[in-house]
């Protein structure tokens, strides 16, 4: 379990440096992974680990959006730091141009012609970008291309 090992190492480093923010975030990530492992009843695969970390990242981004909307900058700043830590354990995210290219390729591959083919395109595309692109961005781009 490489990710848990990395988390343990980063936790030790944060403890030695007395970095409470990093330590707190790393502990939350470790707990989430361990809870999922207990729930699954076996060691997590890389894909399962990425799914847990993606969920944690998504939760933090949603919280940050709500805090920004409410004007709570005092809560947004620590969340930005947490997001950076979570992202460091995930594969590099695709930018919008790369996702657009994949959307175009998938539309050609599936032969999609309009809105009715949205589900078919998403079903084919999401496994390709899993953990590498935000689902909301993919959804938006596919809808725009199928208009």
- Describe the global form: globular
Distance between the termini: 44 Å
> Beta-strand percentage?
under 5%
CATH topology of the largest domain: Hypothetical Protein Yqey, Chain: A, domain1
**Overall number of domains:** 2
User: How many DSSP helices?
Assistant: 7
Spatial extent as radius of gyration = 18 Å
CATH architecture of the largest domain: Orthogonal Bundle
Strand count, sense and barrel status of the largest sheet are: none
Q: What does the average pLDDT come to?
A: 86
H/E element order: HHHHHHH
Instruction: Report the strand count.
Output: 0
Low-confidence segments, given as residue ranges, are none
Helix content: over 70%
GO molecular function: carbon-nitrogen ligase activity, with glutamine as amido-N-donor
Organism: Lacticaseibacillus camelliae DSM 22697 = JCM 13995
Protein name: GatB YqeY domain-containing protein
InterPro entries: Asn/Gln_tRNA_amidoTrase-B-like, GatB_Yqey_C_2, YqeY/Aim41, YqeY/Aim41_N
């Amino acid at each position: 379990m490489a990710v848990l090992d990395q988390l343990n190492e980063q936790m030790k480093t944060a403890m030695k440096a007395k970095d409470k923010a990093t330590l707190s975030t790393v502990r939350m990530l470790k707990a989430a992974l361990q809870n999922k492992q207990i729930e699954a009843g076996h060691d997590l695969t890389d894909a399962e680990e990425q799914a847990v970390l993606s969920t944690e990242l998504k939760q933090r981004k949603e919280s940050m959006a709500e805090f920004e909307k409410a004007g709570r900058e005092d809560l947004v700043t620590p969340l930005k730091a947490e997001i950076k830590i979570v992202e460091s354990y995930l594969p590099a995210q695709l930018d919008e141009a790369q996702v657009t290219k994949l959307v175009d390729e998938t539309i050609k591959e599936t032969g999609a012609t309009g809105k009715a083919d949205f589900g078919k395109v998403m079903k084919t595309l999401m496994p390709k970008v899993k953990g590498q692109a935000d689902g909301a961005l993919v959804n938006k781009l596919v809808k725009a291309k199928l208009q």
